[in-house]
Amino acid sequence: MVKYSIKDLEKFSGIKAHTIRIWEQRYQLLTPKRTETNIRYYDESQLKYLLNVTLLVENGFRISHICSMSDEEFNKNLKEVAEKGLQTKEDNHLSVAVNELVLAMLELDEQRFEKIISGSLLQRSFEETITKIIYPFLKRIGVMWRVGEVSTAQEHFIYQLIRQKVIVAIDGLIDRKKTGEKYLLFLPKSEFSDLLILLFTYLLKNRGRQCIYLGADIPFRDLKQVTEITKPDVLLTFVKAPASKIDTQAYVYELSEKFEEKKILISGNPYFMDELDFPKNVRLISEVEDLIEMLTE
């Protein structure tokens, strides 16, 4: 069983730890459990409950009212909030949407996933859904996965649902005359999680850029061969696997040296990417907004 600290609850729900403690003391919102050494912790059901409470709070319910609800009333209000399309201010709406996606992942609930994505697409473009909901959600679960709070099955479940949406969106783009730079998108050898590269492909194609998408696990030798054939202007890659800082730095240098005439964009492990040395033809893409800003320069 995964054990969550109060800081974990703060991180995943957006509710300050101090506020959670006040809610516990004043309204008995949650009752923390204790380890054999008397350390407080919370289980997955309590995290899910807090995320649902957050959903109601963001929709105007007072915490005192929420804590006095019966289970039946709580679930009824939760359902009504979901069905009315999350009538909140924009920032709160986005935060709620991300929390809803977390719940959909934890509960392996495809219907819940479809509802939140469909609700977003009624209000904003697919690109805005990517930048304001999907990408922040992926950043959150990246943290959750690294500390063992999301199983591989849960991660794969939600990744595949998002991946399907992105592929359909790419296929649905109107074919326009592509006169911009040509991008070659790929993952290095032993990298298999291509979701972020697919998101980048959509953003690029939506702006009329030419894209050659190679996918995952591309050996360096094959990359050189494809580059010679297709002659791209820009190489774009993503390093996520738990490679060391030294190995990643070596890969950056190798890319820069072997493709010195090309512009190279690279994204990856947030824990040390910004500490690397980037040669003049290599640019770090730390956030999806970095790519969008670059495309508008």
TrEMBL record:
Residues 3-72 form the HTH merR-type domain. The keyword Transcription regulation applies. GO terms for molecular function: DNA binding; DNA-binding transcription factor activity. Pfam families: B12-binding_2, MerR_1. SMART domains: HTH_MERR (SM00422). It comes from the Bacteria. Keywords: DNA-binding, Repressor, Transcription, Transcription regulation. This is HTH merR-type domain-containing protein.
